[in-house]
Amino acid sequence: MDGTEAEDEWRWIRRCREGEPGAYESLVRSHEGWAMAYAGAMLGSEDDAADAVQDAFVRAYRNLGDLEPGRAFGAWFRAILRNRCLDELRSARSRREVRDEDGRPGEEAGSRARRGRRGRRRPDAPRRLERQELGRSVRSALSELSREKRAVLVLREMEGMSYGEIADRLGVSDGTVASRLHHGRRELRRVLEERGITPEDIVT
Amino acid sequence: MTRRQRHPQERLSAYADGELSPEEAETVEDHLEACTECRRELAIIRGMGEAMSETGATTGGSMWESVRRRIVGPTGWLLVVAGLAVLAALAAVEWFRSGSLTPEWLATTAVGVGLGLVAVSIGWEQYREWKHSPYRNVQK
Who among B13, B53, B64 is closest to A25 (CB)? Predict the structure, then answer.
């Protein structure tokens, strides 16, 4: 983002702070694309992602007063969205644990069933994928990985966090982060191949 | 199989992330020079990471409407409550003044209060538009 864009963004933010909710539209529209991709990759479901992104936008709007002058809205909003997504992953895990203790099917089976229903909408992978389409495919393939692996992959690849930063956020050791990334990448590659996306599509 | 020939596996992933010590990185680099398979593996790791961050505009519609409803919701209700309060106050005055309330009077007053609120909110919007207009201080 260059200086003019940042100034424009701050003009909208000031209008929001002065009680004009309509001024928020511009901020939502310019950040929702990335936000949906991020939350979709993290949560593995478009519906959950839309809920999380909406919540994050509403939370950000209500706390706009906390944003220090001159600071970029994007980075600040990303932290809000990240917390919302990680909370969701934690609570989903505790829900699954409760269900598993009850002896009923766990969430994993449920998410497989949802994927099955969506499966027919998945386009056949063309030989040469456009980069953005490849991006969507890779993020969509993440939904077949465990939450733990998804989270580390997204924090690493979409936010560029170091192992130490990821370990702090998730409350695990650096070694666990390294191991989850390694296994997550192998699984991701396997899922992509199952979906007809070859290493050539990925590398070129 | 010598140590140098063994595929670095997990360390290759950490190498791609720049998380190895210089010594460890050098060992991996030595291996990479000699191993086509691991070079390809590294390219795939990097390719998947780059692809993940390739995000375009949203494919569906914007979520602005849903967000707007949630952030302005209370204001809409406040207007309704304010309208009802004004109507109740006018009805009380009318009751004390004439001792009765006809359905016609209530209907007319309710419409009047509604129109009044619409006019106030339009006026308020206009004022805000004017206040934020970048041309406000430009001399004609």
Answer: B64
- Yes or no: say if A33 and B56 are a contact pair by the CB < 8 Å rule: yes
C-beta atoms of A203 and B43 within 8 A: yes
**What is the distance of C-alpha A58 from the center of its chain?**
17
B81-106: pLDDT as tens digits: 888 899 899 999 988 888 888 888 88
Residue B72 DSSP symbol: H
Q: What is the pTM of this model?
A: 0.72
Contact criterion met (CB < 8 Å) for B68 and A25: yes
Token pair belonging to A5:
């864009």
To the nearest 10 degrees (0 to 180), the angle between helices A73-102 and A163-170 is 50
**Nearest Cα residue in chain B from A27:** B64
CB contact under 8 A, B52 and A41: yes
ipTM: 0.78
Pull the structure tokens for residue B58: 């949203």
- C-alpha–C-alpha distance, residues B31 and B2, integer Å: 11
* Calculated CA dihedral for residues B59, B60, B66, B71, nearest 10 degrees: 20
pLDDT of residue B136: 62
CA closest to A139 among chain B residues: B52
Q: Are A72 and A63 in contact (CB under 8 A)?
A: no
Q: Within 10 Å of residue A50's Cβ, how many Cβ atoms?
A: 20
CA distances from B48 to A59, A130, B20 (A): 31, 13, 20
**B43 CB-near residues (< 8 Å, 6+ apart):** A203
CB A184 within 8 A of CB A145: yes
Dihedral sign, Cα of residue A155, residue A157, residue A160, residue A161:
positive
